[in-house]
User: What shape does this take?
Amino acid sequence: MSESIKHECAVALLVLRAGGAVDGATKLSLLLEKQHNRGQDGAGVVTLAAHPEAGRPAYNELKSASATPLADLLGQIARRRRLPDERIFLGHLRYATYGKGDVGFCHPFVHKAARLSRTLFLAGNFNLTNTHDLFDAYVRMGKFPESEADGYLICEWLASAMLKVEMEGEADRGRVLVEALRRLLPKLDGAFTLCGMTGDGWSFAIRDAHGIRPGYCLVNDAVAVVASERPAIQAAFNCGTEDVKELEPGVALVCFAADCTPVLLFDPVRQAIAAVHAGWRGTAQGIAYKAVLRMQEEFGCAPEDIRAAIGPCIGRCCFEVGPEVPDAMREALGADAEAAIEPRGEKAHVDLKLLNRIWLQKAGVQVIDVSPDCTMCHPDRFWSHRVTGGARGSQAAIIRLKGGAAQ
Assistant: This one.
């Protein structure tokens, strides 16, 4: 059955993945063209470099509120300065319900900061019922909002939440973004599909829990795409209906990693899930063990009911380290750590997957699936911090509850 094309805003997020040979600007233009309909009176795009250099622009911001905004925007895209290694593209077509035709109301909204990690871009298709409340609450925080536009306020609220999480001591960029979203979303009363990205290359898409606003995605080895309409993705990427999935309403937990170990937990009895990012320091601190304890405290989970999955990370074969890493593991796990440590002269090879399995077993988890893949051995499939020297993106291990099952 075909899906109706609604007269409303449209959003498109495109991330070019490692090894992809896709013309991102052309694909984004197609996504916007295929979502164009009557009544849309504004258009905007942000393109982002994957590895920006200081002293040079990190992103392009293009917008139009002319009589023919999409045609004007497509011309701007064709004439834009091409950034080195452009990999992330965020586009939007505006349907101005209240007739505010100024380009300042065009998405994506941008929160600018000296640090790229604190620079935020946001676009969406939404209808909030509490915009005035958001504005008043933001003012009461001592902030000075420059606009009452709902998209602007969401962007500023999220940027503020990210900064607060960071100032509380969270250093992992993925966890900063996820925690900030967790704090923001309950404040939004209404329907929405939001897409965004940070200046240092993190991107996200999230849909309201009631599924009022549409959202679809395509993820393969070359791209990750989100759009408001399924046919737009099918047309732009020449794929079938079965390849394009609906963004399910509700909350998805996302764990970002590159060489570090993602651990996903699911209790089918208590219907509880968790996502854990375990670098070597987190592994030494027993973060997987602590996650199981937290599930017991928060949801009443029994460890023997929990099922665990340990995802791709740097393997024992490639994780060569100095003495500080094995020393930390021995201090934490004692003799149990020795099976995961292979001394090689002054260095050692360490098995993070095995160490996290040991922690999970100590917590009482019995069913543990472990991916055999090493991210450093397969840079064609996975991002690897060591292979790229830090100039890399991140994997995302995702778990969500749907119909009583974890996906």
About this structure: The longest strand covers residues 86-94. The chain has a mean pLDDT of 84. The radius of gyration is 22 Å.
